[in-house]
Amino acid sequence: MQAVRVKYRDRQKYICYEGQLTFKSFLDCVAKKFDLPTLDLKVYDESKTEVDEEVFEFLLKKQDIGVVEICLPQDPNLEDSLSSPSCSSFASFSGDNERDSDDTTILQHSPATRQRDEGSHLAQMIEDILKNKPGGERIMNEYARTKSLTDARRRDMVKILVAHMTSEHGTSPSRRVKEDYARGITTLYPYLADPRSKFGYEHYYNAEDGSGYLAWRLKFVQKEASEGKKKTYSQSQTLTGGPKAERDARIQSGKLVNHRKPVLRGHCAYEAYS
């Protein structure tokens, strides 16, 4: 038997289940558990992002689902409820009886808690970057409206994030940095996660083969940086001299000598142009 800890206002209870828990059966259990008159409920994860049927299935596969918060759509205290801090817990246990619990004493430094805290931090990082960059608001508004991004908006988002990444960590950031940005994206925007992949963020960076939208953009930036250095070096050689300029000067000098002297023969002619 497994259990999900659910919060409604100031009450927390376990919803226990065996086998596959569907979104509809979950709402039914919640309504009965908290004695709610309707199944028209809003469900939110710990990042205060609304959860629908599609994402609910993905969240259940995670071992750190944390507290699932329930609100009535017409609840006048909806915003206050979502802005208040909540304790986190996910439980998997064996047993025959359901458990009700208002106990919110949790091991705050457990691995699952640390992972959730880190995920929230990364999501906030991504949100802050988008808020403060031109075009970021359009990306955020489109996701809020459609729960998805068009290819064009996704490319814009990747460009913004890679630009920030390279400004903070250089054009060759570590694997951990790339994973953090990818994880932050799918934590902030869970509908962009791939439920079929191991972590959900591999579309943006897959450490196993170095693929993903972030990785591909980085390779383009690295290529541009490399070509820019070559171009700068070539221009500096043209302006300040260098091997080619010196060689041209020697050739020109040789031509002047030939105008003043008889034509040289054999190896002497080669030496004049070398």
From TrEMBL:
Residues 79-120, 227-255 are annotated as: Disordered. The lineage of its organism: Eukaryota, Metazoa, Chordata, Craniata, Vertebrata. It comes from the Eukaryota. Residues 104-113 have a biased composition (Polar residues). Residues 81-94 have a biased composition (Low complexity). It comes from Zoarces viviparus. This is PB1 domain-containing protein.
